[in-house]
Amino acid sequence: MNSDNGKASQVRRLPSCDTSAYRGVWVFVEQIDGVPNQVSWELLGEARKLADKRGCELAAAVLGYQIDPIVAESFAYGADVVYAIDDPLLARYRTYPYRQGLVGLVRQHKPEMLLIGATYQGRDLAGAVATDLLTGLTADCTMLDVDPATGLLQASRPTFGGTQMATILCRQHRPQIASVRPRVLKMPVPQPGRQGRLVRGTLPTLSDSALLTEVVEVIRQPAGDAVHIEDARVIVAGGRGLGGARGLALLEDLADALGGVVAGSRAAVEQGWLPHEQQVGQTGRTVRPKLYIACGISGAIQHLVGMQNSEVVVAINRDPEAPIFRACNYGIVGDLFEVVPALTQRFRQARQEWEHQLTAAATDLASYGGHPHGS
Amino acid sequence: MAVDISRSALEGASSMTGGETRFDVAVVGAGPAGTTCALLLARAGLEVALIERGPYPGSKNTFGGVLYRHPLEQIVPRFWERAPIERKVIDKQYWLLTEDSAVKLGHRSRRFAEEPYNTFTVLRAKFDRWYAEEAREAGAMLIPSTVALEAIRDERGRVIGVRTDREQGDLYASVVVAADGVNSLLSRQLGLHGELRPEHVALGVKEVIALGEDRIRERFNLEGDEGADISLLGAVTKGMVGGGFIYTNRDTVSVGVVANADAYRRSGNSPVDLLEEMKAHPLIRPLLEGGQLKEYQAHLIPEGGFDAMPPLCADGLLVVGDAAGLVNAAFFEGSNHAILSGQLAAETILEAKSKGDFSAQALAGYERRLRQSVTLRDLKGLRRLPGLLHSHPQYFAIYPELLNEAAHHFLAADGRPKRDKVRGALKAVTARRSPWQLLRDLWDVWRGTNLWP
Amino acid sequence: MHFVVCIKQVPDSLDLKINPETGTLIRSGVMSVMNLYDLHAVEEALRLKDRFGGRVTVITMGPGAAEQSLREAVSMGADQAILISNPALGGADTLATSLVLAEAIRKLDADEPVDLVFVGKQTSDSDTAQVGPGIATRLGFTQLTYVMQIDSVDFAQRQIQVRRLLEDRIEVVRGRLPALVAVLKEINHPRRASLPGLLRAARVEIPVWSHETIGLAREDVGLQGSPTQVAKVFAPPSRPPGELLSEGTNGAAAAEALVGRLAERGLLEDIWRG
For chain B, which domains are there? Predict the structure, then answer.
C-alpha cells in the first residue's frame, strides 16, 4: 500500500451524517488547459432549476491554474458562488491533487448536491471523490429533479438495458453526487457580466511523491475526417433495412441535402456498413439533433435511448408494427429505397426554393437601398 | 493430414501427465447424438471429452422441430419435467396444399395431453444446452468454442484422437465418436464419405416468429402448454421434393420449408423466396398475422436414406447422428434416430472397453445394433423412397392438386346429385392422371416404402 | 510480482428480455458472460506475467454463477481465482462493491504484496466506470484510467508508465506502484485458452469468500452498506404519438407531406440557417 499521507481510506463503515448541515447545489466545472468543457454549463443550467426549487444557492467548483476567466464564465452561466482553487499543481488534471482539492472544498463548505460532467476527466474524478467522502454517486443520469422539502436529489438513469428508467436516491449521505454525460442536458443562455461571490480555497501541501502521477507528455489526436455525430444538428440514420452499400449511399444523399451526417443502429455497425463512431444507441453514442431521420430501423429500446433527445424524429420503415413508429413525430410506412430518394429530391427542391426566396428578398432589399453591401 | 503417432504410448484412461491430454472417449459435436453418447459413457464412469464448435451446445444447430418421447425417455426418464420443453404436441396435421386450398388430415388426442405425452416442440439452442449440461453433471468434460479439425491416426491408420484448433490442442482417446453433423468434417477427412451429393441432401430454412401465448392458443385451438404440429405438402414446395412445417413453441412458432438441394438447383427456386411465399399463403398467413420475426436459420439435412449412409465404424472411430445420415426425411425424424445411435454407440464402446479392443471389428457391434434397431429397420424399409420421390415428381406437384380438386367437387354446395359430384370428382382426377397411372403410382408407393408388414 | 484482476459477470446484453407484464428483467435462460473489458484486463495481467513472471489472481464479487467467468480467466492462464459471494453482498452499489473488492485485495496483499490491480474500463450492464476509482482510493493505489497501453513497468523503481486515451488526446503518464489500471479494449487482443488451460480451469478449486472472510460486518456490505438505493423504476418518457404521413409506396406523397410538416414547424429554416 502507499501508506504515506493517509491516502488509504481505512474507514469502512459508512459514517452517519447530519444531512441538515449540508446546503447548496454545486457543479464541478471541468477545464482542460484552461478551456472549460461545455458539459459544465449544461449542468449549471439544470442545477439552477434544482437550486431554485430547493431554495438554496447554486455554486460552481473550479479547480485549475490561472482560472479567473473560467470563474467569470461560471457566474455568467448562473453560479451564485464560485469556490475556486487556483494552483500550479492543478495546471494539468491528475486524479490525486484534484481529488484532494475538491474533497477539501466539499468538506469545508458542505454542499448537499454535487454534479459532475461524465467526461473522461469527470469519470476519473467522480468515483474517487465519492469514495473519499464515503457518499453516494449515481452516474450517467439522464434526468435530475429535487424534492424541495426533503432535499433529496432524484437522479434518474436508464436501466435494464435501457428499457426502463430507475430513480436513485442517496438518502442519508451527503453530498448526493450525480454525473451526467455531455449533450444530455440543454445548454443554457449565458448572461455575460453577471456577478457572484468568489470563495478561494487552497490545496493541502503535497509532496511530489504524494502526487502519485505525473503527465509526461500529451499527444493531441488530429480531428481528421471523423464525423462527430454527437454534435450534428441533422442525422440520417440507417438500420438493418439498409441492406448494404446501396442503402448507405441513399442516406448519404439525404444527409447531404439536409446538411447533416449519417449514423446507424447497432445492426448497421455490426454488418460493417458504418464504423462504431457513428453508432447511435445504448452501446454507441447519444445524440440530440434537431432532426433525426430513422431509415429501416426497427426502434429497439437500446437504440431509442441514444436518440430520444432529438427534437423531431421521422421514421421510415416497411413494417407498420415496428416499435420506432411509437417513438417518432412523423412516420412513413414504406420502402426506404423509394421514400429516401423522394425525400432527398423534395428537400433539395425545398432548399432551392428557400434560397431563391432569400435572394429575392435580398434583391428587393437592395433595390430599396437596404442591402448591406450598398449599391 | 493425419498425424502418425505410435499407439503404444496411449493405453489407459485420461490423464494430463507428460503434457498429453488424454480421455477414454472423445465425442465430437454436442448435438443430440453426441451428447447422448457422452452422457451414457460418463454415467458408466468413463472419462469423456465432449467437443463442441459453438460457444454453447445448440448454438450452431437447428431443426424443425419436434422431439419424440422415445428414445430420450430411456436416457433421461421423465425428461419433460426438467428439460426446456416448449409445448406438448396433442394435434398432428398434414395439409395437402394448392395455391388456395388444402385437404387436411389430422389427429388430435387428449391422451397425448397426459403423461407420458408423445412428442414435444423444442428449440435446439435451449434444449441442447440443457442436455449437454446433463452430460456435464454426469462427469463429461464439455469443451465449447473448439473445433475438431481432424482425426489423429497412428502408423497403422487407427484413430487415436482428434486435433483441435486450440493451443496444444491434440486430444488423445481410445475411441473417437464423430457426431459432427450432416457435413461431418471428420468423416470426410477420414475418407468415409466424399463430398455431399446434392440429391442426398435437403436444405431447410426456418423462421421463429413471436406471436405470444394467447394468440398461439387461440389460433391453434390449444390450452395451457399443448402444442400443434403441422406438416405442409404440395404447393409450398412448387413441385420440388420436400415440405413445410409449422410447430408451436411456447410463445413463438417455428415455420419452415425443406426441399431437396438438387431440386433447388434444377428449378432455380430460392429457399428464402419459397419461405416468404409459404408464409403468405392464404391459409397460412392468418396463423402468422402480427408476428414478429425473431430468428432465421438454415440447415442442411441428410436425405439420401439407407443407401446414402457412410461406413459407420473404423479402427477407433464410430459415426453417429446426422453424420451417419440417420434421418428419415419422409417422416421428419432425425433427432430421435440421432439419440438412439448415440445410445447404441455408447453401449458398443463399453463393450469394447471391457475387452480392451477398439478395432473396427470390435466396434462393428454398433452397426449390428443399429441394424436391429428401429432406426435402420425403418430406413432400410424406406430405402427406395428417395429415388422414388425424385422419379415421381407427380406426388408433390400433382397429387395435392388432384385431391383438392376432387374434394372441391365433392363438397361443393351446388345442389348437384351426389352421383354427379362423384363423377365430377373422378373426372377431375383422371383428366390429369389416367386410372392406369393412378394404379401405377399407388403400386410404386407400396413397393417403394415397404412399410407393409 | 503479484497481479490482481477484478472481473464481473454480466448478462449478455443481446439476450436481454423484459417480462412485458412486470417490467422486470427475465434472467433465466439469459447467457452470462465475462464483462468484455474485464477480458482485456485479464489478458493484460497475463501479459505482464509472461514478461516479468509472478502470479495472477482473479477475483469477483457476484452470485455463484460468476464462478464460470473465473474459470474462463483461469483457462487463459490465471494462477488462482476467488469468488466473493454470499447473500449479504447483494444489492451493493458501487461504493459497497469497491469496499468488498478493496478489502479482498488487502487480504491478498497480506499474503503476497500486490503490485498492480487491473479492471476493465466499465461494465456493459451498469456502465458507470466507478468501481475502479473506488478501489484505488480506498487502497491508496495510484489511479490510472482509460489505459490503452502499458509502456513500461519498473518493479525495482516502483514505477509504471502508461498511455491514456482520452476524448481528443493521448496522455503519457508515469505513476507509482502499486497502481490500479483500468483498461480499454484497444490495449490488447485477449488470448484463447489452450486445451490444457481449459481442462485445468474445469478442475481447479475456487474458494468462496464471504464478507466475514474479509473482515467486514454485515452492515458494511451489500444493500446495507450502500448509500444509494433504487427508489423507483418507471417506463421511459415517450414522445407524444407520431403522425402517420403515408402508408404504401408513394414516396413522393410522403416526401411532400413531410416537408410540409417540417416547414410548418420552422425546422427546415432553422437547419439551413446553420
Answer: 7-62+123-193+310-381 (3.50.50.60), 88-120+198-302 (3.30.9.90), 398-448 (no CATH)
